[in-house]
Write a structure and sequence with these properties.
The chain has about 120 residues and is mainly alpha-helical. It is built from 4 helices and 2 strands; from the N terminus they run ββαααα. It has a two-stranded antiparallel sheet. Its main location: mitochondrion.
């Protein structure tokens, strides 16, 4: 026996298999048998036909960054790149502490009764 949800009574009711698999009368989309028209008349190139230099035009920085981050200088990873990392770290800490203080003040004010 198959069941489906009845929107009117808000309960499960018995149903045929086709109604249970297509709830609320939804039908599967009709798939067209025609091929779509081409968007443009240009031909496409396969990835194997493209030269290797066209896919990436930048310098590979991974080996340099690996050396920087794996250096044993006692700094945590999130501060290894110098001043920009320190600035981001300190800004994040200041906003976190400020937000915590703001939330505590708002909670304190909300817990106090109003004077009439």
């Amino acid at each position: 026996m198959y069941y489906k949800f009845n929107g009117f009574t808000q309960r499960l009711v018995g149903a045929a298999a086709s109604a249970a698999y297509n709830p609320q009368g939804l039908k599967p989309p009709v798939v067209s048998t025609e091929s779509p028209a081409p968007i443009s008349g240009t031909t496409t190139k396969l990835a194997s036909d493209l030269p290797a230099t066209d896919s990436f035009l930048g310098k590979n920085k991974v080996p340099e960054l690996q050396k920087l981050f794996q250096k044993a200088d006692g700094l945590p990873v999130h501060l290894k790149r110098g001043v920009p990392d320190k600035l981001l770290y300190r800004t994040t800490m200041a906003l976190t502490i400020g937000g915590t203080i703001y939330c505590l003040v708002a909670l304190y004010m909300a817990s106090q009764p109003r004077n009439q």
